[in-house]
Specification:
Length: 165
C-alpha cells in the first residue's frame, strides 16, 4: 500500500485571509479593537466580505447606508459583536455570523420591509421613510421598574418614607 502524502496547504497571507472573511489580526494586544470606528469596520471588513447582487427586488441596499438610523445602529451592533467575538478563536466568528450578521443583514437587505426599501440599490438614496407612527401613551402605563428607571427611583423613594431626611 502506498504511503499517504502530506497535504501541503497554500500559504495565505493576511490580506488574502481577510478578503476571504477571516478577521484581521491585531499584533500587539488581543484586547485592542481591530477597527477604530464604525466607518472603518464597514469600509474595510463588512462591505468587503458581504457580496450580494443588490437589485432592489430580491435584496436592497443603500450606498448612503449611513443616512439610515436603523442601519447605523444595526451595523454598529455588528461591529461591537465582531470585536468581542473575534477573541473566541473556537466559535466566535461562527457565532457572529449565525447570531448577529445573518439576522441583521437579512433585516437590512429585505427589499420590502428593510430600511433601504425606497433606495435604488447602488444608484442612490431616498430619504422618504419617516419614523414609525406613534401616538402618545398614557404616562401611568410606564410606572413600573420594568419599563422606566424613573419608576425604580420613585419606588425606592416610596419605600424610604416618601422623601429624603
Amino acid at each position: 500500500m502506498p504511503e499517504p502524502q502530506e497535504k501541503q496547504e497554500a500559504p495565505v497571507d493576511g490580506s488574502t485571509a481577510v478578503s476571504m472573511g477571516a478577521p484581521p489580526e491585531v499584533e500587539d494586544d488581543d484586547d485592542e479593537m481591530v477597527f477604530a470606528s464604525l466607518d472603518e469596520f464597514y469600509d474595510e471588513y463588512l462591505s468587503q466580505i458581504v457580496r450580494r447582487r443588490v437589485d432592489g427586488v430580491r435584496l436592497a441596499w443603500c450606498p448612503d447606508w449611513w443616512k439610515h438610523p436603523e442601519a447605523i445602529v444595526r451595523i454598529a451592533a455588528l461591529w461591537r459583536a465582531f470585536e468581542y467575538l473575534r477573541l473566541d478563536s473556537a466559535l466566535g466568528i461562527s457565532h457572529w455570523w449565525l447570531q448577529h450578521a445573518d439576522p441583521h443583514l437579512a433585516v437590512l437587505m429585505h427589499p420590502l420591509t428593510g430600511p433601504f426599501v425606497l433606495c435604488s440599490g447602488p444608484e442612490g438614496h431616498t430619504a422618504e421613510l419617516g419614523p414609525l407612527p406613534g401616538n402618545p401613551s398614557p404616562p401611568e402605563m410606564w410606572d413600573h421598574p420594568a419599563f422606566s428607571v424613573h419608576a425604580s427611583e420613585k419606588a425606592e423613594q416610596d419605600t424610604d418614607g416618601g422623601g429624603s431626611a
